[in-house]
Design brief:
Four copies of one chain form a homotetramer.
Chain A lengths: L1 E7 L4 E4 L4 E4 L4 H7 L6 E9 L6 H13 L4 E5 L5 H7 L7 E5 L12 H14 L3 E6 L2 E3 L4 E4 L4 E4 L1
Parallel strand pairs in A: 1-4, 1-5, 5-6, 6-7
Antiparallel strand pairs in A: 2-3, 7-8, 9-10
Chain lengths: 159, 159, 159, 159
C-alpha cells in the first residue's frame, strides 16, 4: 500500500477566470493514477490545499502526524515546491518509512505540465528506495538536507 | 549518465492521415525529458523504430549489444509492450547494469497517454534499483522472469 | 437550434491497444461543446460510426434523410474527410437549410488534433452562412462542387 | 487576406513559476493556425500584451488605428474578455471591414482551453459575416452594442 498525501502547491493549481487568478484546486492525483492505469494498491488523502509559502508550523506538524500515523511504509507527499525542503526536514524523524516528496513547476492543468512525469518518478522512488525522506524533482532523487530549489533555473539542486 | 535506447513500439506511434494509419515515428524521449526539465546527465539513442511484434532475433541481439557496450550502468530501454518481456529476458545476462524497460499503452501523441508517467517512473527505477533487468509498467516494477502482459486489462501482471 | 449529426471518420477515432489499432469511437462532440462552454441550443445525434471510405449509398441516404427531416435550419455534420465531398453532393438537394460538413485530419484524442478548431470553425459557419451545403476544413469554407481533398497536403483545395 | 491583431488577455497567459503567477506571453495564434493547417492567407501582428482590464484609451486607440489602416477587409482581434465589448465599441466606426473579436476564458496553455475552438469559430466569422464589428465567444456571434460578459457564468450574453 502506498499512502499518498496531497497538500496543495502548484501541482494542484487550476485557473479561475472569474478572478483571473490561479487557485489551488482538488488534487489531480486520482485522475493521474487512473489515466496511467496504476494498479499498485494506494490511497489518496487530501490534507490541505495550500500554496507552500503559506504553510504554517501547525500545517507541517499536521503533515508529519498524518505520515507518522500511516500503517503504510511507502509514502508519497505532493507539495508546493517553494518550501518542500522545509517540510521534508520536519518529516526526517520518521525513520520506518520511505517518504518521497514531489510537486510540479507547472500545474497539472497545463498542456506541458511536469506533474505526470514527476508523480510517475516519485511513485517509483517510494517503491524502490530504502526508508528515509527524499525529494523527487526534475528526474532526480535528492537528500533534503543537502538540496534547495533554484527558482531561476526552475529546478532543485544540491546546495 | 543514463543511457536511453529507443526501439519503437506504441510509445513512438504517430498518426499519419495520408494512409489513415498509425506509424512508428521518431522517439518522443528528448521532448519528454526537456519538457520535464530533467537535468540528470543522459543520452538518447534511437536503435530502431519497430512494433515489438516485428522484432527479430537479430533486433533483440542488436539491443543487447548496444546495452552491453554502454559505459553507463543505468540503462532505460523504451520498447513496444507486446514483446517487452522477451527482450528483457535476452538482456538478462548483462549483470553489471541496472536495465529498465518501459513503454506505453497509448502513444505519446495522445492527450491521455501514459508515456510521460511511465518514462518518469522508469527513470527513477534506473537510478534507484540494484543491478539487474526490470520491466516498469503501470506504476510497478516487475521481474521479467515472472511477468507477462495482460492484453485485455491493458497492464502487466505477475504470471 | 443547431442539429449536429456525427457519422464517424478520423475525428472519432480512438486508440485500442488490445488490437494495436485505431477504431472509431463515440463522438467527441458533446465533450468539445461542453469544454468550450457552447450555450447556443444544439442537439447531437450519432448516426453511425464509419470510416468514410466504408460509407455505402444507403449510409449516405440515411444521412440525407436525417438532415432533411430535421426541424432545424442549421446543420453540422461531422464526417471522415476521404469522402466528405461525396456526401456533401448527396445533400445538395436540401435547399432550405445551412448544412456544413467538417471533420479532422487528426483524431480528437490526439494532443495536436485539429478537431476542436474545425468544430468551432464549422459551428460559426452554420450560424452565419446562407442556406446551402458547405465543406469547412483547414480554416476555409468550400463549395463541395468545386473542392477535393488533397491527401498529401493534408488539406482541402479548390479543384 | 485576414489580418489578425493580438492584444493580450487570458488567451495569451502563460505560467511563470519563478513568481508563481500567470503572465501574458507571446500570442499562441501562429502555433494554433499552423497546428490546424490553416492555409487561408493571413498575417498575425502582436500589438500589445496586456490584460484587458489594464488597457488604456490610448491602447484602444492604437488597436483602432491598426485595424483602420489594414488593407484587409477581414480582421480578427484576440483580446482579454473583461473589456472586449469596450474595445469593440471603439472599433464601431470602421464600417468597411468585417471585424471579429475573440479571446478565451482559459489560457491556450491549459489542457482544456477554449482558445482553439474560439479562434476557429472567429476565423470562420471573419470570412462569412458582412462588414461590421462582432464579438465571437461561447460558440455564438454577438453584437457588441447589446452584449456583456457574465463573469459568473463564464460566458457572454445578450444584455
Amino acid at each position: 500500500m502506498i499512502d499518498i498525501f496531497t497538500t496543495g502547491g502548484t501541482i494542484d493549481k487550476i485557473y479561475f477566470d472569474a478572478l483571473s487568478e490561479y487557485h489551488i484546486g482538488p488534487t489531480p492525483l486520482p485522475d493521474i493514477l487512473a489515466e496511467n492505469n496504476v494498479y499498485v494498491p494506494h490511497r489518496v488523502t487530501q490534507l490541505m490545499r495550500k500554496d507552500s509559502l503559506e504553510l504554517t508550523d501547525d500545517d507541517r506538524q499536521a503533515i508529519h502526524d498524518a505520515v507518522a500515523a500511516s500503517d503504510a511504509d511507502k509514502i508519497l507527499v505532493t507539495h508546493g515546491t517553494d518550501t518542500m525542503v522545509q517540510t521534508a526536514m520536519v518529516l526526517a524523524d520518521i525513520t520506518d518509512k520511505t517518504i518521497v516528496l514531489t510537486g510540479a513547476m507547472q500545474p497539472a492543468t497545463l498542456r506541458n505540465s511536469d506533474a505526470e512525469f514527476n508523480v510517475g518518478f516519485a511513485l517509483a522512488a517510494t517503491q524502490t528506495l530504502p526508508h528515509g525522506v527524499y525529494i523527487a524533482m526534475n528526474g532526480e532523487v535528492f537528500d533534503p538536507a543537502t538540496t534547495k530549489k533554484d527558482r531561476d533555473a526552475h529546478r532543485f539542486i544540491r546546495a
